[in-house]
Amino acid sequence: MENESFFNAVFQGPLQALFHPINNTIGSIDNVNVWKACAFLLFVLPMLWVWFGLRKEYVNLDAPKEGILYDLRVWTVLAMIPHVFFYLVYGA
Amino acid sequence: MQYSIGDVPAQLTGIDITIVLTYMVGVFILGSFFGRYVNSAGDFFVAGKALPFWAIGMSVVVTDIGATDFIATAGAGYTYGIAAANFDWMGSMPAMVFAAFLFVPYYWRAGVFTIPEFLGRRYNAAVQIIHATIWGIFLIVMLAVMLWLTAQMLNTIVGWDVYVCIWLIVAITGIYTFSGGLNAVVMTDVVQLVIMFIGGIALSVIAVHESGGLMAMQEKILAMPGKEHHMTLLLPQDSGSPYPWSGIIFGLGIVMATGYMAGNQAVVQRTLGARSEWDAKGGMLFAGFLKVFIPLMVIVPGLAAIVLLPPMENGDQAVPTMIREVLPPGLRGLMFAALMAALMSSVDSTLNSATTIWSSDIIAKIRQLLTGKSMPDKTLLIIGRTLTVVFIITAGLGAPLLEGKEAMYNFIQTALSMFQGPVFAILLLGILWRKTTQWGGLAGLVLGVCFTTILNNTDGIFPSDDPFLYVAWWSFVFSIIVTVLVSLVTPQDSDEKVRGMIFGQVMQDGKLQRVLKERANGGE
Description:
heterodimer; A: mainly alpha; 4 helices; 0% strand; B: mainly alpha; globular
């Protein structure tokens, strides 16, 4: 309790002045489509990065065999699809 | 049908006890079998670099889910709805992709045992020892906390004596972890994941069936007052839940999840033991896929409890009550085995990671700083095995001291989360930005932890009573800024020091890739 009162006395004022405007700005975004879009980006961007941002040889270095079954770019998409489905149905 | 809530433990029948004993004896024999393959420290700490992707993936998942999480996550599902699933969905898959293709290849090619060792190579010994000491202490305390809370939970569910539960787990997990090291831990984890999935999914299927089916269950929940957000993953900022959408996306999705998957020793150690870089990456992706199913077997019973049970003040009662009231004999034993599996897999992983960090990053590093010599391999193996015994017995003896201090679990979780933002920041900058200096990394880590402590102890800053997601995000941002600023005003590290540690170098330099690969395969 003493710790908390010390931290509150010293830091609460300046931290509130810093963070409350940011909190209020984020809080004013009440469009569920924006929330959903942010969530989708978090899933889609890594997929795009793996497919187009990385060289295929780097992604699949040391793969036991050539072919689609051993292509980790395909694995990335397949592993992402169920997650994307749940956010599509239950997102907001 | 409505069931009752009570404190009467479930009665295990003969078939239940047979299932549980078979499971325990089987895991013990399987784990101990791998002792014959341990001849060096590398065999003990990183399984001789022989793990296939499927074992890595299954082990990563089961390491992440403890018995207490089984209960607490279902409780969160009961109280807050499916938003609790974000921790296994948004809090896993995107982070696992970044971990798989950005962090894991670097740890793997560097041929290191631990995250602190990597930080030591990229930054300096101070960063390594600070990080290792923090993790080393927390892991040991976590062992005791896990043993105590789960023994209490098993006592509540089936009425077994708390001390019998503690020492049974200590004996089984201690012996096979001592004997087989990471190989034993991972291979028993594979069995434990299968048991967990069978038990968990059986409970979910029966619970949903008893609720009248999935759609009927949803409709009944949404028709209840105050539960209109229970079937929604992304919640408004003012929902009163600890999981608002902005915290979930920035705090969980970007910082906590990636920090956990890329910086948690227990998770990363499995990928360091991969038989190839492809298996290390594939293991992380496979783990991400398996994580899809965790909420289906953990949160769904919590949701079904809303329909099937009278209102409860504490959502953590949901799963124990469902096990007792809904499951028939046989499946009750299987679910009990699943809880044991969840506990044992977390205990063995924590134990193995704690011994690895203490052996490699604290004892061996301090010896090297004092004498200038590296620890001989055999000595490192002996120290690792000795510490395994010391730590598990210490945790067993310390567990009863936590009686009445159950809040310790939340405290430890919060304390651990304090380091995720700063550690993730210096990991990310260390790999991506050549100009990050050793002093920038040290300042980012130390000042970042100080900033997190301030945020955690100051009230009224964020729009939530439990603002750990916001704290994770802002401590990450703060540490990035500090690390960059200090790096810009301190002397640059030499090319030789950072060789093989920067993403761009390794991506573009074929010769360097070959050198790193030889080093990872023990060629250095």
